[in-house]
Amino acid sequence: MRFMVMVKSDANTESGGPPNEADLTAMGRYNEELVKAGVLLAGEGLHPSAKGARVKFTDGKATVIDGPFTEAKELVAGFWLIEVKSKAEAIEWVKRVPCTDGVETDIEIRQVFEADDFGEVYTDELRDRDEQLRATAAKRD
Amino acid sequence: MRFMVIRKADEETEAGVLPGPELFDAMMRYNEELVKAGVLVAGEGLMSSDRGAIVRFSGAGGPTIIDGPFTEAKELVAGFSMFQVDSLAEAIEWVRKWPVEDGHGNAEIEIRQVHEEADFGDVSEENRKYVRNVRDLIDGK
Q1: Does A141 score more than 70 pLDDT?
Q2: β-strands B40-45, B77-84: how paired?
Q3: Alpha-carbon gap, residue A59 to A68, rounded angstroms
Q4: Of the partner residues A25, A40, A57, the one whose CB lies closest to the CB of residue B107
Q5: In chain B, which end has fewer C-beta atoms inside a 10 angstrom radius, N or C?
Q6: pLDDT tier at A116, thresholds 50, 70, 90
């Protein structure tokens, strides 16, 4: 099963300063470990929300709101997509993330939908189209 | 440049309400358009937060595990897509076309710029191999 593991933002990640070399290196080593274990499927870091935007639909009408967004603790600063056998295994990996600066950091673990989770409404035709999309998108990635 | 396009959660996604045939169809058509335009590189949906957990680091002692669900539905992530586009404005234009079937026309979508390796600044030769994009690490580059 797949899990999305999200590092939540804080004042530091939202400030826009580049992470220091020691932190980057520690994270790189951790990522390498995940790759060696065959667990890591994807991962990205995000710029502060000041460089982002929100599109809020109200009864089908779009409103664009420019960043930054204020509730730093609820924002995402980066994520990993991992493939493991259980939520417990996901938690074990996340406990080893190098978070050593003493600042409170939340890392949220969420299970990813697989085609089988959607039931009968997810027809064979939709599955085929989804697989084609993924194959084409992956070539561009 | 890359943008992470985050569909924020709402009461229905947190209640585990699955998409119906109309939403699946609209979303599939939208994703097909994005792939055809070379914009979509990845995307996943997340299960409700009651299937998840938070690992909280706070310095003293080991990390604390908090089981879901988490209450701030509007701040949670229900799914994401990765867009490859030339600007934030282009990402916003694509998000404006988000299917109105989603969230009954009331979906909220957050757009966040993704870090590239060049953003990390100068890194010593010794640590260079650890400081790189996860996608290159996975590809063995």
Answers
A1: no
A2: antiparallel
A3: 24
A4: A57
A5: C
A6: very high
We report the CATH number of the domain holding residue B107 as 3.30.70.1060
Cβ–Cβ pairs < 8 A, chains A and B? 233
Residue A8 lies in a domain: yes
Predicted TM-score (pTM) of this structure: 0.94
Range of the domain at A9: 2-113
Tell me which residue range forms the domain holding B60.
2-138
Which residues have C-beta within 8 Å of that of residue B25, sequence separation ≥ 6? Answer: A126
Decide if A15 contacts A68 (C-beta within 8 A).
no
Q: Give the ipTM.
A: 0.94
Which residues of chain A lie closer than 8 angstroms to B94, CB-CB? none
Contacts of A141 in chain B (CB under 8 A): 41-42, 82, 135
Chain A residue closest in CA terms to B26: A126
Question: Is residue A55, in this structure, part of any structural domain at all?
Answer: yes
The residue with greater pLDDT, A16 or A8, is A8
Query: Do A106 and B54 make contact, defined as CB atoms within 8 angstroms?
Result: yes
The count of domains in chain B is 1
- Which whole number is the average pLDDT over A57-70? 96
Residues of A whose CB is below 8 A from B51: 87, 110-111
A31 touches chain B (CB under 8 A): yes
